[in-house]
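Box 3.1 A note on notation
Throughout this textbook, protein chains are presented in two layers. The first layer is the amino acid sequence; the second is a token string describing backbone geometry. Keep the layers aligned when reading.
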Amino acid sequence: MALLEVRNLRKWFPIRRGVFGKTVAQVRAVDGVDLSLDAGSALGLVGESGCGKTTLGRCLLRLIEPSTGSVVLDGTDVMQLKGGSLRTFRRHMQMIFQDPYGSLNPRLTVGDILSEPLIVHGLADRAGAEEQAGVLLERVGLTRAQLGHYPHQFSGGQRQRIGIARALALKPKVIVCDEPVSALDVSVQAQVLNLLKDLQQEFGIAYLFISHDLAVVSHLCERVAVMYLGEIVEIGPVERILNQPLHPYTQALLSAVPHGEPGKHRTRIVLEGDPPSPLEPSSAKRFTSRFPHHADAFNDGDITLREASPGHSVRCARLDVLQDFAAKSVT
């Protein structure tokens, strides 16, 4: 049984107009997402800006309340929790935020930032929490002498290490990483990614790693899910998705990644037309308007996730059409 099971998760934001605030439409930020995450594994979540990645991550922790759906963590339905039960759940599922500058309270020292969750959850008294804070800080590559420093006294990479230490403080089972290295220099990115990988092996933590950088995802994750307009359009093993993508949106994303070898270039796939409105219900139109050459794969039948190979699924109406396109592009 998977550690985390997400089923039919939706988050629609109402658009209200008029004196009485009548709801006239819904922004379908997350629209029927299914995901599973095993203990100690890492699942990457990629897609263009505005596709719903961060909203999905926040819904899993109920930092944003989902509209419908279920989130089951280790057999517990998170959507049914309230009050003290919800607070206890948050011990087991933490988040590393994208902005290392805005995610730390500037009025607290690093020691207070790391001690606070331990005290709030009753896991240690003040003295014990300060001792554990020192251990956490050393584990992420900083020193105990910095416990009395404030966030503005650290660089961006150091602040993100503090954010990682805070997420580790309660020994969670799952950590949602919301683009934790996108605001950092490339050299610092590598250090933080290696730290996350070491911590995963040491503590057996499962990661949902949100990113727009496929190279970063391939370094850390075993599986990857591709998100488009609030839906998962392709999910499978990282190597399979990177080397044999079937969905035209995944292919377009990969074509935008610079080639790692000098002198070699990818054939850029430019999406046609305007992106469909997130106000519109899921339909063939949101695919055919941007991928007209693949229209036959979405027009004839119900659009659902269909299994192309073990563990590899693609959202379409006719899988054989996408497979034919992929075979022709290889030959």
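The chain has a mean pLDDT of 89. The longest strand covers residues 22-37.
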